[in-house]
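Weekly sync, protein design subgroup
Attendees: M.S., D.O., the rotation student, P.L. (late)

Item 1: inverse folding check
M.S. brought a backbone from last month's batch and wanted to see whether the design step gives back something sensible before we order anything. D.O. pointed out we never logged the input encoding, so this time it goes straight into the notes. Structure tokens as presented (93 positions):
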């Protein structure tokens, strides 16, 4: 596995990470997205400290993940049913 060491900054704190070279862009994009959300929350909501902003950001991302997992499960189930229906139709021919 081709790994590299990168530095990213999240919430004004630097982190040194070792990632697969193929994942570097994804990790940097994810860190940028986190920082954008933190900035947005800090501009629109009252907060006591950075932990409040990080918690709101984590909750937002976790909620999105749960939503997308639910939608994916529904699509998979629906697609499976449609494939079974098509297979039945083809079997009749």
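Designed sequence read out in the meeting:
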């Amino acid at each position: 596995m081709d790994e590299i060491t990168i530095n990213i900054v999240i919430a004004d704190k630097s982190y040194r990470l070792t990632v697969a070279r193929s994942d570097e862009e994804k990790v940097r994009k994810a860190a940028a997205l986190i920082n954008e959300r933190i900035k947005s929350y800090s501009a629109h909501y009252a907060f006591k400290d950075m932990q409040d902003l990080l918690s709101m950001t984590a909750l937002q991302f976790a909620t999105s993940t749960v939503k997308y997992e639910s939608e994916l499960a529904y699509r998979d189930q629906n697609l499976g049913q449609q494939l079974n229906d098509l297979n039945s139709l083809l079997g009749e021919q």
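Discussion: The beta strands are 3-10, 13-20. The chain has one domain: 3-92.
Action: P.L. to compare against the previous round before Friday.
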